[in-house]
């Protein structure tokens, strides 16, 4: 248990610690006093206590919940050997095992692994690899990237450059990032409706979009890439679901077209699965919705089950071989904590849990549960859309969310959420029960109704 009360923690935090996208004078009105399973034990400055289902999976990472005995054991066992060693000139078993598991689990053809500190760093590595690849192949002028409006890829400099330059969170930093090229957001897609059904039936649903809108977008893609092919190193996308850019689901046909056009013009395809990977959208990886294999592939967040920061960049042998034959021969990046043994050991255990506990059944159950539990929100005057894809549920409002008020109203209903913009959403842990999902749905609907009507 913490040695300080919630009130003490909150008071000493204020003015001392920055929190994500928040002022120093207080964006942490709640303190975590404990966490177990899918629940957080929270307290506020007034001494109130809340037991709440974590509907956010700690920003989409804690898919197996808190105090998971398998992950705890993996962490402690590795700590009994060594916690960290440099990866320069050395290797170790947790890194080798994790790389082998990632190659086996990801789309066929991704055969080489770079272990990074965080999701944002894995995107940085992917961008650098694409530029190195083009230069090594005699195309040193191909240094630009083509990304999607509405996209989000991280907070470091290179990653900021391929986030949405206007509506994203990084518009103030244009002087720090290289100017890139952007395509319009692909057309929105919806799940084909199915009532009940087996796990296979639920997870084999299609994403449907307007064919005319898809054709028009693909034509824009083809024209843009053809016009800029001489300067483009790669196309960068979040596959099918854009996360922090608006929890927006788009047509898989657009991702398939990006794969085709990239190949035709000697441009690489980078797929950012940091938020979507490891089953979150109903496929093990969201690029499977379009049946594509990218040249470069990034994963993170759920990789360690939310225990430690770790991400990975994978690439094909075609890309890796060009780097190996180049004068440098190396991918020019090397974090101090690259392949941290503790993180790698926990990641191995987390990936094994995904398979052994049947992520398909877990996500299928969550998708069906969220579809029913969030449906009443459509009757609210302030709500313009409710959508569910895999273990992702979104309630979209016609106005910006009053974040403090909605957060508090949900917490009083036993649910922890973190809304943004005009969205109140959930990405719950995979171990959530039907009762947990019902609580989340009722908490979100009730909070939105109370605050916004």
Strand sequence of the main sheet, in spatial order?
4-14-13-12-9-5-6
| Number of DSSP-assigned strands | 18
Structural class: alpha/beta
Percentage of β-strand residues: 15-25%
Distance between the termini: 39 Å
Shape: globular
Question: What's the overall average pLDDT, rounded?
Answer: 95
Helix proportion: 25-40%
Family: Belongs to the class-III pyridoxal-phosphate-dependent aminotransferase family. BioA subfamily.
Pathway: Cofactor biosynthesis; biotin biosynthesis; 7,8-diaminononanoate from 8-amino-7-oxononanoate (SAM route): step 1/1
GO molecular function: adenosylmethionine-8-amino-7-oxononanoate transaminase activity
Binding site for substrate: 59, 152, 301, 334, 418
